[in-house]
Amino acid sequence: MSAVSTMIFTHGTILTMNPSREIIADGAIAVSGGRIEAVGRTEDVRDRHPAAGEVDLSGHIVLPGLIDTHVHLAQTMLRGVSEGKRLKDFSNWLFGRIFPLQGSYTEADAAASARLAVLEMIKSGTTGFVECLLAGRYGFDGIAEACVDSGIRAALGSLVMAVSPETRDELGWHHGMWQTRESSIAQALDAHDRWEGAGEGRLQVWFGCRSAEPACDLSLYDEVSELARERDMGITIHLAEMPSDNDFAHSLGFRSHVDLARGHGLLGPRTVLAHCTVAGGEDFRLLADTQTSVSHNPANNASAAWGPAAVTDMLAAGVNVALGCDAAPSNANLDLLRDMRVACHSARQRAGTRLAIGPETVLEMATINGARALGLGDSLGSLEPGKSADFITIDTDAPHLQPVWNPVATTVFAAQGQDVDTVVINGQVVMRNRVVLTMDEAEILDDVRGRFRDVAARAGVTGLESEWPTV
Ligand SMILES: [Zn+2]
């Protein structure tokens, strides 16, 4: 659509997520120039825009686009590799399997994986995401360009790390996954100079910090925090993910891993911490006071068996908690509709009561809280006039979705990624009737199918098949 024409999307059940959380039973959204011009009852919006083109969404639930605050684009081609011969120990898994595979990627492999991830996200209703650790060797430009062309909204965390060559070799860290502190910081700053605000403002470039663990020189975080404040850049990092993280912090005299992050300047309104499964009460007060966001990854945490984070305690303390799918090796899909359900179930299970959390809260985490985590709370995350036109629709004409008593419960508990019919991002119709209009789906799938075994052969990694015999 041209920047000046108005399009109206009519007859949907609209979950506005506005401050009153209104649900409009027969609602319409008028979109013009990438922004929402009006949201209301279909007859009212139509009266005000008699000449507008119209898309009929009868039978669809319409909601803000979902925001996935923790993604690893390059690991999507590694979907399923954690099973087969299962590795018990996290560091064996990381250094013995995942890093050798990723470290053997060519730029074309990484781009293929990234495009697969973006395609999967769009097809399951994710309209914006935070990539945690994008290594320069994957070819930042190719991946940034693929994101821009797809129409999605992204904050790409350009990897920064400070691990000495001696420590790398001691750990058996694949050389392809390692780079120097100086080059990683220079790369992130260069990427920020060239790509921040690309795609009509849809792209952001952040610092993607490698984890705060014994292998890392922690002064990296002081330097990166300072640079991020100077440039108003976002920061994302895995934090307080497993018990050893707190042990490490204690060994340095910090109260906790979150306290260590505070001590090195990492906390603040432009920071997204992934996981926080081993954070507690004092930490939550600190995160709320500093307006730091947390990306809660319930399906990944369940698969890795670290258990669910204390998400209801975080929310009660006033922390901005958003949702993330994390990576395909540990959580096979980038399907936030499915993971909203897991978030609800796991929080109830942890609390021992179904009253602990409802679908409304989980939907807030996937939409407006995600928008705040992106630093876009004022312009994204709800369907209100003046905000960016980022929304998705769920076609409820399916046996597993009928009847619809409560569209919020249907969305969170019954819908899955494959039920997303239409995706609009920044006013652009990116998917309609499940056909992605901005990407060549068949070509992307072919590309990945032609590559994944070569990556394993190059990496010399085996044991990825089922333990049952293949005949
Ligand atoms: Zn992760």
Quaternary structure: single chain
Instruction: Give the low-confidence spans.
Output: none
* Bound ligands, named by name, code or SMILES: zinc ion
Helix content: 25-40%
**What CATH architecture label of the largest domain applies?**
Alpha-Beta Barrel
CATH C-level label of the largest domain: Alpha Beta
Identify the overall geometry: globular
Q: How far is it from the N-terminal to the C-terminal residue, by CA?
A: 53 Å
Strand content: 15-25%
User: How many β-strands, per DSSP?
Assistant: 17
Judged by helices, strands and strand pairing, the structural class is alpha/beta
What's the number of domains? Answer: 2
Computed Rg: 22 Å
**CATH superfamily annotation of the largest domain:** Metal-dependent hydrolases
CATH topology of the largest domain: TIM Barrel
Query: In this structure, how is the largest beta sheet organized?
Result: 9 strands, mixed
- What is the mean pLDDT? 95
